[in-house]
Amino acid sequence: MDYIRFLRSKVGQEKVMLNFADGFVIDTEGRILLQKRREQQEWGFPGGALELGESLVEAAQREIFEETGFHVTIERLSGIYSKYEEVYPTGDVAQPIVHFFVCHINGGQLTIDPDESLDVAFFERDQMPKLYSDLHQTAWNDFLLETGPVFR
């Protein structure tokens, strides 16, 4: 079931709160995995919306696998970000509640889902591209401080 489609069929483009689970996916060399999102056409961290009946961890693992081809182990919560607004190219408006997890790869291989991604690539921590949203940039800055979990 696609919860967001179901919800949008009821409320249209009105502002709603949506729960997301995203990951700072780290490889064995310490690089960070980013997804160039088709919808925004910019880089961001892999992850996505929870479906009904899913836990945050299940959603993070499912979304990361669907978007990158990697299976991940969740190490810890990095932060929760809730005071943001996102306007999607479709005109839909949401207040995202994003739970960021620190993740390590435990299997799979790099793949790109062309429906969701333009590219998926690893970056050195000091060579990160511009991220698509203030929320992702703030979460990244907080991650680098290593003081988490952070609640914003």
Shape: globular
What's the β-strand tally?
9
Main sheet makeup = 6 strands, mixed
Instruction: Summarize the amount of helix as a percent range.
Output: 10-25%
Radius of gyration: 15 Å
User: What is the count of DSSP helices, taking H or I runs of 4+ residues?
Assistant: 3
Question: Low-confidence stretches at least 5 residues in length (pLDDT < 50)?
Answer: none
* Straight-line distance between termini: 30 Å
Kindly estimate the percentage of residues that lie in beta strands according to DSSP.
35-45%
> Could you report the average pLDDT, rounded to the nearest whole number?
94
Topology as a string of helices (H) and strands (E): HEEEEHEEEEHE
Secondary structural class = alpha+beta
